[in-house]
Amino acid sequence: MRCQICRGKASVEVRQHHAAFCPLCFVQYFLKQVKRNIQAHKMFSSSEPLLLVVSGGKDSLSLWDALLHLGYNVTALHLDLGIPGYSDRSRDACSAFATEKGADLRIISVKEEFGVSIPELAKRTRRVPCAVCGRVKRYLFNRYAVEGGFTTVVTGHNLDDEVAALLGNLLHWQTGYLARQHPHLPSTHPKLAKRVKPLYTLTERECLAYALIQRIPFLAEECPHAEGATTILYKEALNHIEEASPGTKLAFMKGFLKHKDIFRVVEEDVKLRECTLCGQVTTEGICAICRLRERAGAVVQG
Amino acid sequence: MRCQICRGKASVEVRQHHAAFCPLCFVQYFLKQVKRNIQAHKMFSSSEPLLLVVSGGKDSLSLWDALLHLGYNVTALHLDLGIPGYSDRSRDACSAFATEKGADLRIISVKEEFGVSIPELAKRTRRVPCAVCGRVKRYLFNRYAVEGGFTTVVTGHNLDDEVAALLGNLLHWQTGYLARQHPHLPSTHPKLAKRVKPLYTLTERECLAYALIQRIPFLAEECPHAEGATTILYKEALNHIEEASPGTKLAFMKGFLKHKDIFRVVEEDVKLRECTLCGQVTTEGICAICRLRERAGAVVQG
């Protein structure tokens, strides 16, 4: 197999594009894809202050590396979830990368913000950890961005993440979620940062290849709470199809974006207001996070 | 495990409904589901002359058995595809059932209608057999129904068939197919019979259980051309999800039917007219079947 750019020995096959690259040309291909996604969806300009959310895994650290290479104005934010062992190793991976690159990393913790860790919060509210965690992350990342003067929250969701979410939303006909699924969600309120996903066309495998070639010290370990999550099930199902029919995932995603206006017709107008307790943006009187806090407190007292 | 109706020993588990039945009560459950689907979608009345398409497999023969039990006015039609061995065994299964039940079975053959069998037609037109076969079947079944005074073409498509088609249409955003996918497609032209699928909520496994309990002499063999078909791939992917999350397929199908009007907005008005060569209904000047015939002839001459 020859690299389709330099004709040297290829070592990375990108089946969805029927392409193969040598390590160096693959890095160029990856950076070009990231830049193309940013520009095609007008995600952000090169001077805008970006807040990149990093977990310490291959996707977010690869994106961090790519954004630095491409010269964007990026600050990383890591959230310590308080999961014994796993959270320490995640934080260490982010710190190691920041030190190596001399890059700007901020760290906040769920325990400092909420008084309890994610596992404890899930236990107290009798919710699935992943559901609580997703909600808390969206809330804290947005608040940190808005308060810190960042225009944009950037996340490392890759193509596999996006098509798994898409499949889940379609299997259950979550038309509201479908109407809001997009690699670029603009800000619709002064207290709401724009949210973008520059890796949305790149597979998990491509992000892994980039991280390995660039010798990024990422954490390979999955979150211990992720096991058995439906997302993994949807990824496995889609991998089964992709294996026999390469390019299906990307066509699925691109076709959805082309046709997604059809979901707008069923989506009611969502009115945004400020939470009466914390002042953050919500569609209800009291935001989901304040209700979660109340619930956690009530259970403790009860 | 106890039968949820008679409390006797259950031997058939229906995981999508968290239910289990003894063989006799399962048969009653199956018949009730078929009847409910027919009535809920106003598919046909008990006196209407129905043309049921039978392949000799578990689905179509189970449906034939069910429609006879429920007292519908059903005539079966089997199409001999001319696939060596497989087609003989398929025809024999249909004939055995008809003889046993004293039921009305008509048999036509692709070779008599087109001069060549399905494999030969696929070869001559350089098309995938499944694509040619599907087209030929729809054409011949409709023509036979309309010319014979049958109001309705009934097919044995089960839930697995329908969700596999739905997933395929969504993965490739075939909005035209999505707009037309429904268990009851009404007639929109005097030369077009109504098409219905009374088994659309029943899984392949449930149809198999019904056929086994009722001792229906079905052909268990798959069509030799089906191997590697994308439909099988989609079924495997959906089975993987259903295994961990029973009821997903049914929810996927029902959610789609609830929301399917959203696909109508993107679907252009399709104007039906009569083929200038054969007089059958088409959306173009010459119908797909006459073009297929021409192509087959041209290749032979060429």
UniProtKB/TrEMBL annotation, chains A, B:
Zn(2+) 1 binds at C3, C6, C22, C25. GO terms for cellular component: cytosolic tRNA wobble base thiouridylase complex. Keywords: Metal-binding, Transferase, Zinc. Coiled coil: none annotated. Zn(2+) 2 binds at C275, C278, C287, C290. GO terms for biological process: tRNA wobble position uridine thiolation. InterPro entries: Ncs6/Tuc1/Ctu1, Rossmann-like_a/b/a_fold, TilS/TtcA_N, tRNA_thiolation_TtcA_Ctu1. Residues 51-220 form the tRNA(Ile)-lysidine/2-thiocytidine synthase N-terminal domain. One of its GO terms (molecular function) is transferase activity. It holds the Pfam family ATP_bind_3. This is TIGR00269 family protein. It comes from Thermanaeromonas toyohensis ToBE. The lineage of its organism: Bacteria, Bacillati, Bacillota, Clostridia, Neomoorellales.
